[in-house]
């Protein structure tokens, strides 16, 4: 089974020499059957990922291939079943193994398959850090004083973009990689992008573009030109992708062409979510898993989200929902629909069970309080005022219409039971943002000090101011001086 899942290319030394022995050891199930290792909830796949890593970097002798040494020396920390396979998948990719995803899933037990939807979202191939760092400019020695590097980088940004010292420093703080790039490389990149039609303003807003080598940028743009998405002003967000990822994604694009009427996954997203191509490119540039996941799954989830009337804007802002299983999304959408949640947001579909249950409970409590009324209508009833007054309060305190209705209801019930009026609440709207516990505690403390407040403003004071009021009230009480 492992022979079907892994293909080792470019292997040499102990890696190639021991590969057949490794496969043989893994295939020999007796190696993993002892009570000692079963008790620890380990399995051959979690052992082998550590073994392969050590073997790749020459940390093992031939003797270590033996089953005994293999088991005794490379036990990994206990983790969940799904976690083992995810860890294995990622580490094998990091070692330079080409993973046949379809075959890899055949070794995943059925009882953890639902938890492994993330595997479908991992890139087909991961490339090592050396290949990734080769894409960037490192013109300055890392041993140079960091303070000097930062000052030089700030100066470079001032010269390149005509920024003030403060603006240039803020830019370097946000993009520290620019400290490793010389002024010559920065100006070279700016000239290259300007020749391609990218505006200086776009470069100023996306200075990360200046951290790449010219050769890398040229190669990436050559690949992207075959995608027919538009000029550099449209596709520049995709330059965030590693060069090798772009090559792999080009192959995916060719496969997608047979499945997508619009021809490209990015164009499909732009059409479905009614956004421009640049915005869609930005999402794909920042979330590579959108390319590595099967288009069938991606399009299925997309259709379900749109059918549930989830805002395209919210989908674009939270594409992590595409990493989750279709079945889980279907079940949650059905529950949210039955409860009457509106609007539905992507985070509700991917939240933990505890948060999901809390959300449902809040919605049910809200419906119990409001009935068929809106929040504005509810407030007009509670405050005994017109809609204009509520809208005025909301303009001054925008959070008012977002506060949980059940908490507002508790505040109103308590205040009115204590003798306060709706008019007093309108005069001091800040009282609505305090918890019942805080209001009750402060009111009790004041009354024990002999002071019964006539205004709610006293209950809204800062801790220090409130403490002074209580202190004065206590002194008056001890002297039998009435508090007026």
UniProtKB/TrEMBL annotation:
Residues 2-92 form the MKRN2 opposite strand protein-like C-terminal domain. It comes from the Eukaryota. The keyword Transit peptide applies. One of its GO terms (cellular component) is mitochondrial matrix. GO terms for molecular function: nucleic acid binding. Keywords: Transit peptide. The keyword DNA-binding does not apply. One of its GO terms (biological process) is termination of mitochondrial transcription. Pfam families: DUF4796_C, mTERF. PANTHER family: TRANSCRIPTION TERMINATION FACTOR, MITOCHONDRIAL (PTHR15437:SF6). Belongs to the mTERF family. This is MKRN2 opposite strand protein-like C-terminal domain-containing protein. It comes from Diploptera punctata.
């Amino acid at each position: 089974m492992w022979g079907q899942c892994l293909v080792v290319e470019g292997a040499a030394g102990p890696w190639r020499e021991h590969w057949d022995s490794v496969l043989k050891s893994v295939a020999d199930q007796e190696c993993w059957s002892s009570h000692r290792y079963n008790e620890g909830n380990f399995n051959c796949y979690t052992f082998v990922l550590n073994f392969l890593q050590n073997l790749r970097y020459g940390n093992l002798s031939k003797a270590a291939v033996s089953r005994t040494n293999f088991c005794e020396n490379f036990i990994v920390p206990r983790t969940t079943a799904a976690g083992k396979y995810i860890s294995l998948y990622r580490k094998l990719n990091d070692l330079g193994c080409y993973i046949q995803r379809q075959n890899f899933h055949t070794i995943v037990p059925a009882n953890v398959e639902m938890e492994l939807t993330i595997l479908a979202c991992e890139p087909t191939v991961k490339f090592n850090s050396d290949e990734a760092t080769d894409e960037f400019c490192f013109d300055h020695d890392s041993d140079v004083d960091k303070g000097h590097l930062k000052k030089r980088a700030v100066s470079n940004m001032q010269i390149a973009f005509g920024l003030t010292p403060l603006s240039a420093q803020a830019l370097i703080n946000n993009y520290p990689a620019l400290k490793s790039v010389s002024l010559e490389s920065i100006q070279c990149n700016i000239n290259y992008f300007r020749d391609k039609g990218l505006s200086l303003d776009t470069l100023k807003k996306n200075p990360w573009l200046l951290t790449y080598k010219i050769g890398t940028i040229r190669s990436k743009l050559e690949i992207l030109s075959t995608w027919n998405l538009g000029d550099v002003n449209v596709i520049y967000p995709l330059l965030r992708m590693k060069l090798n990822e772009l090559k792999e994604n080009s192959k995916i694009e060719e496969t997608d062409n047979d499945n997508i009427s619009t021809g490209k996954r990015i164009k499909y997203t732009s059409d479905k979510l009614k956004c421009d191509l640049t915005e869609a490119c930005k999402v794909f540039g920042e979330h590579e898993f959108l390319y590595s996941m099967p288009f069938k799954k991606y399009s299925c989830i997309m259709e379900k989200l749109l059918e549930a009337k989830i805002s395209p804007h919210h989908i674009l802002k939270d594409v992590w929902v595409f990493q989750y299983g279709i079945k889980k999304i279907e079940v949650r959408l059905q529950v949210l629909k039955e409860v009457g949640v509106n609007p539905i947001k992507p985070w509700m579909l991917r939240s933990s069970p505890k948060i999901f249950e809390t959300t449902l409970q809040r919605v049910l409590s809200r419906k119990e309080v409001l009935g068929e009324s809106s929040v504005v209508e509810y407030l007009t009833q509670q405050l005994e005022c017109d809609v204009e007054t509520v809208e005025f309060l909301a303009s001054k305190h925008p959070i008012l219409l977002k506060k949980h209705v059940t908490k507002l209801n508790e505040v109103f019930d308590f205040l009115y039971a204590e003798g306060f009026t709706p008019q007093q609440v309108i005069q001091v709207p800040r009282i609505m943002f305090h918890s019942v516990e805080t209001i009750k505690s402060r009111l009790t403390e004041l009354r024990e000090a002999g002071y019964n407040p006539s205004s709610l403003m006293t209950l809204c004071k800062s801790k220090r101011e409130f403490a002074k009021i209580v202190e004065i009230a206590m002194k008056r009480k001890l002297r039998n001086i009435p508090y007026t």
